[in-house]
Write a structure and sequence with these properties.
Elements: H1 2-5, H2 9-23, H3 30-40, H4 47-56, H5 62-73, H6 85-88, H7 106-117, H8 123-146, H9 153-160, H10 167-170, H11 184-197, H12 200-203, E1 208-209, E2 215-216, H13 228-234, E3 243-247, H14 254-270, E4 276-283, H15 287-296, E5 301-310, E6 315-323
Parallel strand pairs: 3-4
Antiparallel strand pairs: 1-2, 4-6, 5-6
Helix pairs in contact: 2-3, 2-4, 5-7, 7-8, 8-9, 14-15
Length: 328
């Protein structure tokens, strides 16, 4: 038993690899796993044995993986600094960090292993990149599903959405949890892309484009003249106003404020949008006028956040309210 305890990780993998070649090619891996655990005197369900099983049963990239492991145990990988016990004994491979590595594509595994071997990537960076690629693969499959690219797969998605079907755009969504299904925010993102796809020619005139698939347009109309028809004509895929941000002119009256609220409500009613936000930056002296308009509205939640700051000549305050359901 003492001899097995002194075996390095590489030696343990080689023992299991040899047994795998002899008896592990059956559909049922249980006998092979139990035999390996018994010989190495380890628990079959331990984290170390699970990593050993994954590595020793690799069809492709096994030799590359073993080269990386041996390189790590020699203390020769990029950025690896030995200290303490590692100076007297071989470094112990942090095998738990390899958990996501076994879930990525074999071609990605090959590239990452080669990057470690030629010292362009640290072992820790390889494991981190593998975790990102695993999550990104799930996002890409969800993207194909939501944009109806199931037949053509990712190649079709890239062809149809060249700006959106990129790692830079989709990597942001790897921070979301897909464990209980596709998140609503990602579904909404994909649905927006499908709507915008129908207006591809019109999108060429967009003034700005954000990472989340939102297009911005400059509409050459005064705010008092806006209506649904103008917005649909000027903004392809228009489906209502989610956010209105106004720096209120000093000469606006209660009637002007009321006209703004009524106009936005009418536009969103035509677009069947029942929840939206209005943010109004105004002089402190106009707060009472703003509140007077809001108090006349039904089904409106408003808030005065007391966010004040000094300008050169006067105090300004940010006053905002959120419409959860619109009274029509």
């Amino acid at each position: 038993m003492e001899q097995h305890n002194k075996m390095c990780f590489t030696d343990k993998v080689k023992v299991c690899r040899k047994l795998h070649e002899e008896m592990g090619n059956e559909d049922d891996k249980t006998p092979w796993e139990k035999t390996c655990a018994m010989i190495l005197k380890e628990k079959v369900d331990s984290a170390m044995m699970q990593s050993i099983f994954e590595i020793s049963s690799m069809d492709e990239n096994y030799e590359l993986m073993m080269s990386v492991i041996e390189m790590y145990e020699d203390g020769a990988t990029k950025g690896q600094k030995l200290k303490g016990e590692e100076l007297r004994n071989r470094p112990v491979l942090p095998y738990t960090k390899l958990r996501d590595f076994f879930s990525i594509k074999t071609e990605d595994q090959c590239l990452l292993l080669e990057n470690v071997l030629d010292s362009t990537m640290t072992f820790a960076d390889m494991c981190k990149e593998a975790s990102i690629l695993k999550k990104l693969d799930l996002v890409q499959r969800s993207f194909c599903q939501q944009t109806h690219c199931l037949d053509g797969g990712w190649e079709e998605a890239v062809e149809r959405f060249p700006k959106e079907a990129t790692r830079e755009r989709l990597e942001e969504f790897t921070k979301l949890s897909f464990s209980r299904g596709i998140p609503d925010s990602f579904v909404n993102y994909c649905q927006r892309l499908l709507r915008l796809e129908k207006h591809e020619d019109g999108l060429k005139n967009a003034a700005a484009y954000s990472k989340n698939g939102t297009y911005a347009f400059s509409v050459p109309e005064t705010i008092s003249n806006l209506n649904t028809s103008i917005l649909k004509e000027q903004c392809p895929g228009f489906s209502g106003i989610d956010l209105t941000l106004i720096d209120m002119p000093k000469d606006w009256s209660v009637e002007d404020i009321n006209r703004l609220v009524v106009m936005i409500k009418a536009i969103n009613r035509d677009s069947q949008k029942k929840m939206y936000n209005i943010a109004l930056v105004c002089d402190v002296a106009h707060i009472s006028e703003v509140l007077a308009v809001l108090k006349k509205e039904k089904n409106v939640l408003f808030n005065l956040p007391f966010a004040m700051w000094k300008t050169v000549s006067e105090d300004r305050i940010l006053d905002w309210w959120t419409v959860y359901s619109v009274w029509l």
